[in-house]
Specification:
alpha+beta, L-fuculose-1-phosphate Aldolase, nine-stranded mixed β-sheet, two-stranded antiparallel ribbon, 11 strands
Length: 196
């Protein structure tokens, strides 16, 4: 039986188990994640594989939703982790929290690395919006798989070649329905997806 290539971690993870983070920023992440779930752009497919993730810049890394949390309707602090180190060349990261980081953690890290003004990154699946954005908005190469160093490098290429700072959205050609929104805060990034 062939497993689908969606929702699975492709990087090496050093996971340091830790207690959930009871912080105001996590409450804000939960609020926006709830809105995106209600809009149907974070969730789970018919096979039960979760999709979508959300993060905010924190210290030298980010706080991001955990792997396979997409299908959980109401999430809390136990569904978030801190990514403290990312090494693209080694295809590895270190995270600390009650859950391992999302499969898209490297992509989020690449966006934070490319633009110091970005404070929030959201990845969703939205077929109609994806079809509208594909090759109109900045678009990743169709041959680049999600959740890999290659995707992170592709994001960096787009930041170098196109003026992404003022656009806030990327279509993922090789990740059907995949869209990334980013902004100076969760309100800015989230509004692009639920109000745009």
């Amino acid at each position: 039986m062939v497993m689908p290539d969606e929702g699975y971690i492709k990087y090496h993870c050093r996971w340091i188990q830790a207690e959930p983070m009871e912080m105001e920023v996590v409450k804000e992440l939960c609020y926006w994640r709830g809105r995106l779930f209600a809009a149907g752009i974070i969730g789970a497919d018919s096979n039960g594989v979760g999709f979508g993730n959300i993060s905010i810049r924190w210290d030298q890394g980010c706080i991001i939703s955990g792997t396979q949390t997409g299908g959980i309707e109401t999430i809390g602090p136990e569904h978030f982790t801190k990514v403290t180190q990312v090494d693209l060349a080694a295809n590895s990261l270190v995270c600390s929290g009650p859950i391992q980081a999302s499969s898209e953690a490297m992509t989020h890290a690449a966006i934070y690395r490319c633009n110091a003004a970005v404070q929030a990154v959201i990845h969703v699946h939205d077929r109609a919006r994806w079809m509208q954005l594909l090759h109109i908005a900045p678009t990743t190469d169709a041959s680049v798989p999600y959740g890999t160093p290659e995707m992170a490098w592709e994001i960096e290429r787009l930041f170098r070649k196109q003026s992404l700072e003022s656009r806030g959205m990327i279509a993922m050609a090789g990740h059907t329905d995949g869209i990334i929104a980013f902004g100076r805060n969760l309100q800015e990034a989230g509004s692009l997806l639920v109000e745009g």
